[in-house]
């Protein structure tokens, strides 16, 4: 794979290795792409249920705008046990790792590849795993980009509904409903027929469905993250994510309420919520250019990308018809001094507001694009 560099840089061939890494909770399949930027943290990805690193992130990482990031940062794709393509069925009697255990497998991955810290990029179940990892190992995580995260455990009604769904639907249908929306699945099929068909084919033909079922069951039995927003003048030593965090969700995603709830529980000075207009449950696939632009500003806000390296991105996005809505997105910022009082303001902002996530601000930022 050859990537385009800036005019002052030379073209390079990153070193790509693929291997199974042994952890205390089983082997995980990893794809590691190294660059010459040894002083930068690695981007560590973790996929959602029913997906693997290809089906979850290939569209995003193959986009030309993403090349400006991956030439600066090593990338490590992690796949849950038995979720890689052509995986053999896990042995009979095998106990699939819990979500907490999968998060505790990640330090072994970092140690194996010699990574000192990471910027996590996760979707759905992968977002939950990376958030849990950051809570338990804050010194290993510089930042998080969490798409469709649900910080809560399943309630009794959710568990009952899942069982009913398992009786009445095939596994691919259940996974598709998880990735899109149970209530709007028919509408999504009509508007994104090709995308739904592609993922149905992927789940049916390239994934080991017995293994997928175990991963899905593990996710459905997750514990709540039990994070709490620090309150100025109150208890500031609560359990919460300590790193800069960007939450992303499509406005038609089944996870939108869960993501908004997660935002309300995190530190407002370190968290940005990005709602993507006219987008379903797969924003990194459906609208990769918007996700990449947000990701770039997020990384720049952490101090890893200079303004000069953003020039080509800015010129492309302002002239792209698919990103016209980024010219004047709405921002809804709110403070939460107590649980019952909310103050909202509406202003016109650009995607540059995302870069403020790593600065000291007194309110959480929500950007709609």
Automatic annotation (TrEMBL):
One of its GO terms (biological process) is Wnt signaling pathway. GO terms for cellular component: cytoplasm. It is found in: Cytoplasm. Residues 334-349 have a biased composition (Basic and acidic residues). Residues 350-363 have a biased composition (Polar residues). The keyword Cytoplasm applies. Residues 316-369 are annotated as: Disordered. Its main location: cytoplasm. The keyword Protein biosynthesis does not apply. Pfam families: Ndr. Residues 316-326 have a biased composition (Low complexity). Keywords: Cytoplasm, Developmental protein, Differentiation, Neurogenesis, Wnt signaling pathway. Contributes to the regulation of the Wnt signaling pathway. Down-regulates CTNNB1-mediated transcriptional activation of target genes. May be involved in neuron differentiation. Belongs to the NDRG family. PANTHER family: N-MYC DOWNSTREAM REGULATED. This is Protein NDRG2. It comes from Oreochromis aureus.
